[in-house]
Description:
Elements: H1 3-28, E1 42-44, E2 48-50, H2 57-76, H3 91-110, H4 118-121, H5 125-138, H6 140-143, H7 167-176, E3 178-182, H8 186-193, H9 197-207, H10 218-235, H11 261-270, E4 272-276, H12 280-299, H13 301-308
Antiparallel strand pairs: 1-2, 3-4
Helix pairs in contact: 1-2, 5-12, 7-12, 9-10, 9-11
Amino acid sequence: MSAGWSWFVIALIALNILGCVWLIWWTGRRRPGDPAPTDTSHTWDGDLTEYNKPMPKWWINLFYLTIVFSVGYLIYYPGLGAFAGVSKWTSADEHELHKQSFDARLEETFRPYVGQPVDAIARDPAAVELGRSIFSNTCATCHGSSAQGAIGYPNLTDDIWHWGGSPDRILQTVLDGREGVMTPWGKVLTGMKGDNAVDYVVAYVRTLSDPGSMENNYMAAQGKKLFDGVCVACHGPDGKGNIELGAPDLTDDYWMYGSSKASLYETISNGRHGVMPAHRELLGETRSRLVAAYVWSLSHPQDTDATSTQ
């Protein structure tokens, strides 16, 4: 705050305080010629009279004491422009004190899970509940409160994992994030096979989850030639994908961006770019382990239930 603004604020506060003092004094005093407190001539129904009695002295003194308290408060705490107050109190310092206190309590809560394997943490119901709470506050925005995802956001409750579903792979995803890039192939394919090239590849990709539909399918047959020349680099010759690249398995019935012809055409022609943010700095390793354990437990309920009932 500049010196000019600081003095402006101080002057404004001083005027308000002096104005309150003057208002109490002005309204509380009696003036020459004022009628007696019991002589107002306002009478209703014969015996109901309005009096003009002043406020009791103790009540007025309370107002003055309130003003004195406010002056002391402004001297002790920062309130007069850039003046820091004799206590040097700041909201930032107060926040830091509370944060340190809560951080210490959180560290005590998380200490049993430091460095523990994700699948071992997932067998502790209390740990899974902690992970669920962290997930709800951090991850549910994209993956949904039930972790079933949405268009463009993967379902975490099934057994389909583009980057691998082992406990360590899930933890790595939470800590360091992922970036999945599907290259736009529209122009390349069109240059190879004409305007219908993308439609050919769409037709073939749709047969991968239903091999019987490949029979007598001219478009799919043309698409297979293009797939073998372009797409196998990431998705493999059998279309089962590559977890090291995040390339999805095209032989199952799960499509993160939708399985319609229009959606597949958009994916192949213009590509996709999905980003899972890294949470290492935001959550730290232990809380990331708890989240990973919760996520892993969603697709392995039998492993966690069997242990919790023993």
